[in-house]
Amino acid sequence: MTIIDYGSTPPVAALNPSSERKAHLANYRRVYRSSETAAVQDMDEADALRQYLQAYDALDTAHVVVKARDVETSFDLKIRNEDVAAFCKRHGDRFIGFAGVDPLKGMEALRELEYAVRELKLKGLNIQCFENRIAINDPRLYPLYAKCIELDIPVNLHCSINFSTQSLMRYGHPLQLDEVMVHFPELRVIASPPGWPWVQELVGVAWRHPNVHIGLVAVRPKYLNVAHSGYEPLMQYGNTVLQDRIIFGSAWPMQPVSRAVEEIEALPLKDAVKRKWLHDNAKSVLRL
User: Do residues 179 and 47 make contact, with C-beta atoms less than 8 angstroms apart?
Assistant: First the structure.
């Protein structure tokens, strides 16, 4: 089955800052240690990149989304739009880049987003609100939401628990997204990861707002079929009223891509729904 991976970080230095520069994310390495160990082998960059590209060849991958990120004001970290654009250009149409801008930079962020889309040809905006230490409905984000509508691009919003002990959980609460969508109903949103421990709230927001999609990113798909995991509503609603709104993303290297795809294929979903989750829904929201 052809897939689109909505979230992946290629193993190249420009897109992988050192652990010192990502100190605020250190607790993620504890939480995801076993899954990352299964995904990543110890090898030099050239071999790692070759293996990474071959893995997507083996999976019949149509597209892979690679996201920039700018949290300089809060944590002095930036994955540059230029570097994401350069990787996508170097490795062909399979790779699609999302821009990252820092909403705390005001007009500079707006100008950078416009440049990233119009000149660098990036296809969306990535905002990790917990890393900016602002809520999804913070007024400082509203000009960026309006600009996304003007540029006709989707925005990826972290909409779940985060594991950084240098930020707050509440920055990712889905009910904040509901307020944004009331103000910006034309905004195309991919909320990812999918809301834990507020999965039902996110399902409610997506059911209310047809432009809200749920990115099944950085979550082992098998847990959607595990009782009391908290993810069960995604199975029920993702197989029915929200079947057109669930989008697969591995978040590699946080888990092996092939294992994540196999776990979706093993879920008790209708075959047509599996195709939507793995490919068709992403194709639609990304306007491919």
Answer: no
CA dihedral sign of residues 152, 145, 119, 130: negative
Helix axes 174-183, 142-151, angle to 10 degrees: 60
Specify the 3-state DSSP secondary structure of 9: coil
Q: For 95-125, write each residue's pLDDT tens digit.
A: 999 999 999 999 999 999 999 999 999 999 9
Per DSSP, the three-state class of 268 is coil
- Can you give the pTM of this predicted structure? 0.94
User: What is the rounded distance in angstroms from the CA atom of residue 22 to the CA atom of residue 26?
Assistant: 7
Q: What is the rounded distance in angstroms from the CA atom of residue 57 to the CA atom of residue 282?
A: 18
Phi-psi domain of 230 (left: phi exceeds 0; alpha: psi -120 through 50; beta: other): left
The angle at the Cα of 107, spanning 103 to 110, to the nearest 5 degrees, equals 70
Cα 23 to Cα 19, 104, 228, 269: the distances in Å are 6, 20, 32, 39
Position 34 scores a pLDDT of 63
Q: Tell me if residue 66 falls in helix, strand or coil.
A: strand
In this structure, what token pair is assigned to residue 179? 């307020």
3-class DSSP assignment, residue 59: coil
Residue whose tokens read 């690679």: 66
